[in-house]
Specification:
Blueprint (H helix, E strand, L loop, with lengths): L1 H16 L3 H19 L6 H20 L7 H13 L9 H10 L5 E3 L4 H10 L8 E3 L1 H4 L6 H11 L7 E4 L2 H9 L4 E5 L9 E3 L2 H9 L1
Parallel strand pairs: 1-2, 3-4, 4-5
Helix pairs in contact: 1-2, 1-4, 2-3, 3-4, 4-6, 5-10, 8-9
Length: 214
């Protein structure tokens, strides 16, 4: 996915600001590394921080690519992210069928990402399953960082889902610990078969469909 991002950022920005695709690809690597480093100590709430760091990302890309920064870097950053995320295809060919299987069970579907909701929205559109999700959380929607049980409590509150019916999947055990503390009824760790965990372990999302339909 990073390679797709680098290419697509260049394809979008060359007609708008000039330069060439390789220069923008290198600029994106430079600016994205700096942006991710700043996220380690954001210094603000998600809603405030995401926008501020995206503005810096755009400005630093322009500086690195040697082109003038646009008058409204925030607006252009939003345009770039929306355009790119809707074209980046995640390397998970079986995920779409698995999500459709979950929907067929009658489940309401949500994401629980630390990223911006708009980015998740775009990635799901790229693989053709956005319409299956009720909401794309999105630390900005609930304005909570994904750093403790409060993140999951806010999702339950915002979505109206009964904790006793709530199920979540993650590849990070600590995130599932937080979800369990927030009251989620079932927590699934996405990990190789045989992995030891206090949570239920699944090797693929498709396996989740079988577990929930049993």
């Amino acid at each position: 996915m990073p390679a797709q991002w680098q290419r697509l950022v260049g394809e979008f920005l060359v007609p708008r600001l000039g330069g060439d695709v390789p220069a923008w690809a290198a600029a994106n690597v430079y600016a994205a590394d700096r942006m991710f480093a700043r996220y380690r100590d954001p210094g603000g709430t998600p809603r405030e921080t995401h926008g501020r760091l995206r503005r810096l990302w755009m400005r630093e890309m322009c500086e690195h690519a040697g082109v003038p920064t646009p008058k409204d870097p925030s607006a252009l950053a939003e345009e770039v992210n929306r355009w790119v995320t809707e074209r980046v295809v995640a390397p998970a060919p079986q995920a779409s069928d698995a999500v459709r299987g979950l929907k067929a069970l009658g489940a309401r579907l949500f994401t629980s990402s630390a990223q911006m909701a708009a980015d998740i929205d775009g990635y799901l559109r790229a693989i053709g399953i956005r319409d299956l999700f009720d909401e794309t959380y999105g630390s900005d929607i609930i304005d909570r960082w994904k750093t403790n049980a409060g993140f999951y409590r806010k999702i339950l509150e915002h979505s109206g889902v009964d904790p006793q019916e709530a199920v979540t999947v993650d590849d990070q055990e600590r995130c599932l610990d937080w979800a369990r503390r927030a009251g989620f009824a079932r927590t699934f760790l996405l990990a190789p078969a045989g992995t030891g965990s206090s949570h239920e372990v699944i090797a693929t999302v498709a396996e989740l469909v079988d577990r929930l339909s049993a």
